Request: fold
Amino acid sequence: MESNFKITPEWISAATARGQKIAALTAYDYPTARLLDEAGVPLILVGDSLGMVVLGYPDTTQVTLAEMRHHVAAVARAKTRALVVADLSYHTYDTPQAAVGNARILVEAGAEAVKLEGGVEVVPEISALREAGIAVMGHIGMLPQHVKEEGGYKIKGRSEAEKQRLLADAVAVEEAGAFALVMELIEPELAREITARLTIPTIGIGSGKNCGGQILVIHDLVGAFPWFRPKFAVAKADIASAIRGAAEAFVREVGA
Reply:
């Protein structure tokens, strides 16, 4: 790929046909976005996970659209080759009109696509976004914005009824015009089946290896949030210890 090639939703969408798996990571600030882009990450998600790993909220439901806009703008300033996707935060897409209006705020801040959670029930919102010319990434399975009513983070698709519902959700999201689909905490065999059925890439998180790609929260990948890490996330670094060690050394030097 040429060094100045700009990745688009269409390029991501065609990844399955090329036999290419998509590696996606989150970023919430300018330097992280630049570093991920330099590493060749093709898709950067400004996720509402920032609520937990950046803002200190207990879950994603407290993240506001204003906070999302702030972090999207910071990431967009990195002018990445990677596609910048932004989460539509909790209750910002309750209607098709709200989805379009709020997505436009994120697009104006620099997002090149938006992501929203849900399946069949959000088809009207996905369709409205596509009609407005806004690219959409779907998200099914465990829905973090619904963690309170679902009683925690649980594997989805273990019962036959849930399996059929998730299959229907995946097909509906693709048919509505999404260019990719995040599958979170879906039973791995079902994730494999959904991946085989769709033409757009499925991007798994805690859903096994047989997806069309994988996405992780950057803090989980580099060990920057030591107080909690999902079981499925394997850290490739220990940034938290490095920061703590550097700060301790600074304190000692100043004290001496």
In short: The longest strand covers residues 136-141. The longest helix spans residues 160-176. The CA atoms of residues 73 and 108 lie 9 Å apart. The two ends are 52 Å apart (CA to CA).
